């Protein structure tokens, strides 16, 4: 309607003034309801064409949308594993600090794993003590084996010397028996030394490695025990939290509730039409009015334009996707941030809004090689943005009336 009124001032009104003051035709006599089209056909036709052109120009280069939401983030409350709730520490709509416990699952299995790991560590410590004692005993066995070997070696050397002096005194068989006894004592000595080395290796490497593995198992069991207590990752308000002791919580099926963080605000997320994909660019100036804060125009800036349309996403499933299932057109997701700090204060998170984005050709208008027609065209584009700004302010005025009176909400 506003565009039609503006265009009629440039088309129908001049046509009427020409008919009235040049041709002398007057309303009610020469120009009436039945002859209006014939008398003002040029002005009406030009008005319709100009109005349609103006509306197309405005809505293309200065897009508007009602698909705007003051988005905010939430944190899902759920454990990392399935379990039965043993204790609940908070209630619904209760404010919690970062790291505060929210609920605890039954931890009997985790406590048993911790106790098993502790017993294993104690067992390895006992094995270390026993191995140290065995190492001391191994020194005694080595000394005993050395003495026996030296004695056997002396006896063998004595028999060999006697045999060399008089072969008839010592039999050859006796020398061989002494040699076998000396070799056996030497083997016993080597076995005792090897046993000591085994004990030293066990004390220095094997038992510490086993203890480290047991300590790692204890640490893992402690981590699993800590997971049974679900804590707030950030400070905020607990919402939709109806969990009670005895309930089963499954992270794949059922969450425990929702935590709305203190730093929950993301900004305004708007969905513009796909036809404006070539116009919407980061850095564009925008304006919005929200139903949660009526009679207020919020200046914004486009910070990000999503380069994909969510309606066309495809993910791996067990069924082939028919394009007909994606026939509903999606919108161009755009992120809007306030120009100045605190301008979104007072707007409830999740509030619905109306937003306009404005194309600016300031840099191109100041280009040295721009043509006159191009300069005029870009000036027209920037100027008609004023019409859309006026429409947004009218919507801001009528939004409470439309919401409270016309729709009954």
Structure in words:
- The chain is α+β, with helices and mostly antiparallel strands and 409 residues long.
- The protein folds into 4 domains: 1-56, no CATH class; 62-71 and 264-406, Efflux pump adaptor protein, beta barrel domain (Elongation Factor Tu (Ef-tu), domain 3, Beta Barrel); 75-106 and 229-259, RNA polymerase II/Efflux pump adaptor protein, barrel-sandwich hybrid domain (OB fold (Dihydrolipoamide Acetyltransferase, E2P)), CATH 2.40.50.100; 108-227, Helix Hairpins, CATH 1.10.287.
- Helix content is 48%, strand content 20%.
- The chain has 8 helices and 14 strands.
- The protein has helices spanning 2-10, 12-21, 36-39, 41-61, 108-165, 172-227, 362-365, 372-406; strands at residues 64-72, 75-77, 83-88, 95-96, 101-105, 229-231, 236-239, 248-249, 257-261, 265-272, 285-290, 293-305, 332-338, 352-358.
- A 6-stranded antiparallel β-barrel has the order 1-10-13-12-11-14. Strands 2-9-7-4 form a 4-stranded antiparallel β-sheet, with no helix packed on it.
- Strand 11 and strand 12 form a beta hairpin.
- The two termini are 26 Å apart.
- The mean pLDDT is 81.
């Amino acid at each position: 309607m506003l565009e039609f009124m503006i265009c009629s001032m440039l088309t129908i009104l001049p046509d009427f003034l020409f008919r009235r003051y040049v041709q002398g035709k007057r309303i009610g006599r020469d120009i009436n309801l039945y002859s209006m089209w014939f008398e003002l056909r040029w002005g009406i036709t030009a008005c319709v064409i100009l109005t349609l052109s103006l509306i197309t120009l405005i809505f293309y280069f200065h897009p508007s949308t009602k698909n705007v939401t003051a988005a905010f983030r939430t944190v899902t409350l759920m454990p990392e594993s399935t379990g039965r709730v043993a204790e609940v520490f908070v209630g619904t709509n209760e404010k919690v600090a970062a790291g505060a416990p929210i609920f605890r699952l039954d931890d009997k299995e985790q406590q048993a794993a911790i106790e098993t790991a502790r017993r294993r560590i104690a067992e390895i410590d006992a094995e270390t003590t026993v191995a140290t004692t065995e190492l001391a005993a191994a020194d005694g066995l080595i000394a005993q084996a050395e003495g026996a070997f030296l004695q056997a070696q002396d006896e063998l050397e004595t028999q060999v010397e006697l045999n060399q002096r008089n072969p008839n005194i010592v039999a050859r068989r006796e020398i061989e028996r002494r040699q076998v006894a000396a070799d056996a004592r030497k083997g016993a000595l080597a076995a005792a030394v090897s046993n000591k080395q085994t004990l030293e290796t066990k004390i220095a490497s094997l038992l510490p490695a086993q203890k480290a593995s047991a300590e790692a198992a204890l640490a893992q069991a402690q981590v699993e025990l800590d997971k049974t207590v679900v804590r707030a990752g950030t400070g905020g308000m607990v919402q939709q939290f109806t969990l009670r002791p005895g309930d089963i919580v499954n992270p794949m099926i059922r969450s425990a509730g929702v935590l709305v963080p203190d730093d929950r605000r993301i900004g305004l997320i708007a969905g513009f039409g796909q036809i404006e994909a070539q116009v919407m660019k980061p850095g564009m100036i925008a304006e919005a009015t929200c139903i949660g804060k009526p009679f207020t125009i919020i200046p914004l800036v486009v910070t990000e334009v999503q380069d994909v349309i969510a309606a066309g996403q495809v993910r791996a499933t067990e069924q082939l996707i028919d394009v007909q299932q994606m026939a509903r057109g999606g919108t161009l997701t755009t992120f809007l941030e306030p120009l100045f700090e605190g301008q979104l204060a007072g707007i409830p998170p999740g509030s619905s809004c109306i937003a306009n984005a404005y194309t600016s050709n300031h840099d191109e208008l100041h280009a040295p090689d721009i043509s006159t027609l191009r300069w005029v065209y870009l000036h027209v584009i920037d100027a008609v943005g004023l019409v859309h700004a006026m429409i947004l302010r009218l919507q801001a005025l009528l939004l409470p009336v439309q919401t409270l009176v016309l729709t009954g909400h």
